[in-house]
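Methods: example folding runs. The two proteins below were folded one after another, and each record is reproduced exactly as written to the output file, sequence line first and structure-token line second.
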Amino acid sequence: MKQRLCVGLIAGSLMIALANLPMNAVACGSDIERAVVSVDQPVKLLGVVLRGRYLFLHHDGMMDHGRPCMFVYSLDSPNEGNKVLAFHCKAIARSKSLEFKFVLKDVPGDMPEAIEVQFAGTVVGHQVPDYDSAE
């Protein structure tokens, strides 16, 4: 029952985001944060190269139960709506961000790697785990 509820919440959030929500939309009073993000320069996230438009969802309830809580969906055709990856993040207190941001690590001879995500209007950063925590 809980799993159906979580899947329903995620699917509902995806449908709302696909209805052209403004950039960096945040679900207030909810366990779910979301942002529609355009990645112009290639960035690696857990070994996956991101470039294009994506929906990022974070679900606090899933995080509280040690389950994957950060979900990334493609918003570009032909893969629109497909899950790119999911992982269990680690919450870190940060100063309030006015916009969605990636914290990037420079990798010599390769593209930058995202090591943390923070949603607009929040005071929490979501650290990206090691590769073995991703789905």
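Second run, written to the same file directly after the first:
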Amino acid sequence: MTDQKKDLYDILREVVELITPLSEEDKTKTIRWACEQLGINVANFGFTSGIQPETPRDTPSASLAQPATQQSTPKDIKTFITEKSPVSDNHLAATVAYFYQFEAAEKKDAISKDDLVDATRKIGQGGRLKRADQTLVNATNAGYLDNISRGLYRLNSVGENLVVMALPNTDGSARVAKKRKKKTGKVKHTKTKAKK
């Protein structure tokens, strides 16, 4: 009965914990085999995170040519970020890291503050981040990125799952949280002069 009360993220955390000790190749095989057992076609997900469906031996390669052509066309960063519609700066940093790691024509294993600033400029939000370097630190503290060297940050599995599974945020919870934060500002104290 307790298993039925687990939400999607509880199950996801358990799956991630189970496969984390495996090698990259075994992680990919495990996820692919699980999808096959569940009858899920990985090619329909619309993202390329290293999981490639195996070509059945009795299937001619011509029948798989169409999906491969669709996946090989990279999206531009503006289209990708618009589709994911990250509300918070931490989510934006994870989305940019995901784009460069999996979607960009010229892939990058890690991003820097310059990549983040360039991405905001390309999506028409050049002044969105006051300090891009601090945004990357905040996204790391939130658990979406790993700091791999001075000024370089790599998307981790939590950040990848956020971008793939949770964005775009359709329930508006991130937007509500942001609005609440703005409303709770400092209280202005006014001094009253005492009459003598």
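Comment on the second run: Confidence is low (pLDDT under 50) at residues 46-71, 173-185.
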